[in-house]
Amino acid sequence: MKLAYRIVTPIIAVASVVLGIFLKMFYFTVGNADETIGNLINAIASITDKFSTTFEYSIFDLLKLTSNIQPQTGEDAKTFTEVAGPVIPHLWAFFIIFVVVLLVVLAIGIISTLPDSKKKRYTVIGLSVGGLVLLFVDILVSNAAFSKITGGEIDLTELVSVLSDSSIAALATAILTVTSASLSAGFYSVFGLFILIILWTILSNMLISTPIQKTKTHKRKKPMRKIMVKSKK
Question: CA 54, CA 30: separation in Å to the nearest integer?
């Protein structure tokens, strides 16, 4: 069991980091408050794959997207920081906290490979609980950012103009707003794997402390009969 713990726990930790970076992290839905326009938009989205009302991004997608942003030209040109100004502090806070969470996961993976001890397993549980607390803080930060986005504090047309060269996409946003925003599978997979590490560590602790042993049944041996030798008179 000790060897299994030293192998399985680092694998879970590495899986958490990979899923946190590459699995979809943010989920957005766009639409229009007017019911007629909203139904028209949904109808168009259902008959073509060139237009969608839902968008999902992983951390990797966002890094790739922001790295490809070209500087805008013209008198009214704005940078990404200017357009997304209302949520920039929340973005920084979210990503800094999430990076710390990933570092905590890596620390758990490294610690779990060390020679077995009860202190090591308690440290893993403590770090996992700390990671969950940080993720709860990230949920609060993201909810604050999402409320600003759905509240219309960010101009969607300007944002698309910064992120895309498509004039058609920018034109389409004139009648669209972000109707809902939430965290997606990438975030909750890390959350769930922290819980899995805690449960796995508790189970390992129990099995290491009181290992399951095969009960041996002792059968009573039959006494050997004494052979009597009759003496001749």
Answer: 6
The predicted pLDDT at position 77 comes to: 61
Helix (H) or strand (E) holding 230: none
Distances, alpha carbon 163 to alpha carbons 10, 53, 62, 111, in Å? 38, 17, 11, 41
The four Cα atoms 186, 188, 194, 199 give a dihedral, to 10 degrees, of -130
pLDDT at 149: 85
The pLDDT assigned to 116 comes to 78
Residues 6+ apart with CB under 8 A from 4: 204
- Encoded amino acid at 166, one letter: S
Cα–Cα distance for residue pair 206/232, rounded to 1 Å: 70
Q: Taking each helix axis from N to C terminus, what angle separates 185-209 and 88-111, rounded to the nearest 10 degrees? A: 30
State the pTM of this model.
Answer: 0.79
Q: Is the dihedral of CA 79, 84, 88, 92 positive or negative?
A: negative
User: Are the beta carbons of 189 and 16 closer than 8 angstroms?
Assistant: yes
Q: Which residues of the chain have pLDDT under 50?
A: 233
Residue owning tokens 């938009």: 41
Q: Which of 143, 194, 130, 183 is nearest to 23 (CA)?
A: 183
Q: Which amino acid is at 29?
A: T
Q: In which element (H, E) is residue 16 found?
A: helix 2-22
